[in-house]
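Format notes (please read before filing issues)

Several people have asked whether sequences and structure tokens are stored in separate files. They are not. Every record keeps both together, in the order shown below: the sequence lines, then the token lines. Line labels are part of the format and must not be stripped during preprocessing.
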Amino acid sequence: MTVNGIDVTVDGLSDVSEQEILGYIDYVNEQTRDRVGKLHISAADDGCVTLDYALMPQKFERIRRITGYLVGTIDRWNDAKQAEEHDRVKHGLH
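Then the structure lines:
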């Protein structure tokens, strides 16, 4: 089932309400500070529940090392530095 855009599966529990699932989602979000992508709720041997989850992928910004500087973008560089970056040999992945 899908709850608030999150893929949720429940195993071994027949009486889990949507409100309870939302509480589990909030709990995981508070613990990880990241957004939950998938949540698996199952019965534990001791009468509790087990929460297994996968987080949403984080946005990744490319960082390049150019002449000793770690940068994300080069838009604030002067013309000479941008020309130096443009003239560099760029190696592809094979």
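For reference, the curators noted about this record: Residues 59-89 form one domain. The beta strands are 2-3, 6-11, 36-43, 49-55, 64-66, 69-71.
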